[in-house]
Design a protein that fits this description.
- By secondary structure, the chain is mainly alpha-helical.
- Helix content is 66%, strand content 5%.
- It has 31 helices and 6 strands.
- A 6-stranded mixed beta sheet has the order 2-1-3-4-5-6, covered by helices on one side.
- Helix 8 runs antiparallel to helix 9, helix 24 runs parallel beside helix 26 and helix 28 packs across helix 30.
- The protein is globular and about 90 Å long.
Length: 587
Amino acid sequence: MKQLHALIITSGCSSDKFISNHVLNVYSKFGELEIALNLFSRMPRKNVMSHNILINGFVLIGDLGNARKLFDEMRERNVATWNAMVTGLTEFEFNEEGLSLFSEMHELGFLPDEFTLSSVLRGSSGLRDLIYGKQIHSYILKSGFEFNMVVGSSLAHMYMRCGNLVEGERVIRQMPVHNVVACNTLIAGRAQNGDSEKALDQYNLMKLAGFRPDKITFVSIISSCSELATLFQGQQIHAEAIKLGANTVVSVTSSLVSMYSRCGCLEDSVKAFSESKHIDVVLWSSMIAAYGFHGQGEKAIDLFKQLEKEDLEANDVTFLSLLYACSHCGLKEKGTEFFNLMVGTYKLKPSLEHYTCVVDLLARAGCLNEAEAMIRSMPIKADSIIWKTLLSACKIHKNADMAKRIGQEVIRLDPKDSAPYVLLSNIHASAKKWEEVSDVRKAMRDRKVKKEPGISWLELKNQVYQFRVGDKSHPKWVEINGYLKELAFEMKKKGYEPDTGSVLHDMEIEEKEYNLVHHSEKLAIAFALLNTPESFPIRVMKNLRICNDCHVAIKIISEIKCREIIVRDASRFHHFKEGKCSCRDYW
């Protein structure tokens, strides 16, 4: 390009405005802003296009400050000028400023085009501002953009991001022609709204319609497999990504790392990460999170140190993954050190999730008062999750007095959540405070709060099997129940004693033992033992945290049956093997 530029200068064409703008555009698109600025300052005749090119160049490298400065200095602007600035602001999630600029543009009489509208809708999506989004929808209908593919897909995306999946799908259905972008919008919308199964269905329909999936498709659909923990489907989609060459895209690789991790295959996460040639902070943060999720805190820390050596700029997600890893491995000192590093050296503002990790870290280590002090002094309003984290630690450390106080905080914020009532009931029962237990149970009845049922599921031969606690509706119930009785007999010979403290305390002992035997993860494991080869690892997912009794029982089952049993609960992964668990009984 520099040789061509030199030729333009020597041939006397550099004074031509049309040629100069094209040269400026090439330098800007290649990120050579220093050369572009020098050329811009020497151009004898500049026009609106010259300014627009430079604004886009600044936006491309994320320099919104200089982009806005140049924008404000312009005496004459056109729609492309406004588009460049609005797009830049919403792309980097300065959504309020972007929407404000759009309003100013509209007031000055500029007519938005499809690019303006799609950027503004992105801003509404980012803010989850459904009211503003609906106002833009009204404008779209009045101005005849409702059948435009770019605008229609952005509009559907806005509705879905704001939680209105039905309206988003209606917008897509009304579009006269569908393309990959429309399919991606539907898949992403369903995945983001927790309907991963329908996202997978849409992916299959997309392929049947002859559309070729792209990197955006693969990121959304791999995330859906991750959410459902459907390993076999995830592997199939990985193979399809390889065939289409999308597996080398860093966002797809990051999704694969997360998917394999959440399906219980840490080795495959490591393999996907190791095979990537990209040195990218999102990818490395995903791998740090994977190590943390599987209780390998030291490896997460080692990877963070490598990240720093590679001169990658750790972000808030990196530190969240790191703090999570430390909290689940009992690395209190390291975790506190990383929190201080994040705030002091990296100058990152901690979110509520960061504080929750630190509270978990302190509380698990027995520093309950310090954890409570952090919640009460942090500059962010506490939610029920952070208080619930502390309440769980009160159960671990058998602090019934503090639990009563913290439980009230949780219930005040989320009175319909059954978890704090159950935790409080069990904490008071362990302390033999039966009157307190009765009060908690009465409060649940009065408020019509029902305990969330335990649900476990596993994937076998590309089919997902689901189990609920005590559920007798499964077609193989008789066989599973009989096998569990045999298993319980073998376990008791190995010293297993049912932990009746894990069950609500208004049952008879025999009923408690029956309830424990039929917890959903035990049903799933029994089914897997009956239907898989002897050397086959068992992977079970659960919606709640694993109870102490199941944790002890599965350790013994792994030893008796010589099986590796991997359980993903609501908090982390447990790898049971030869009578031991990867969490080292710290969860």
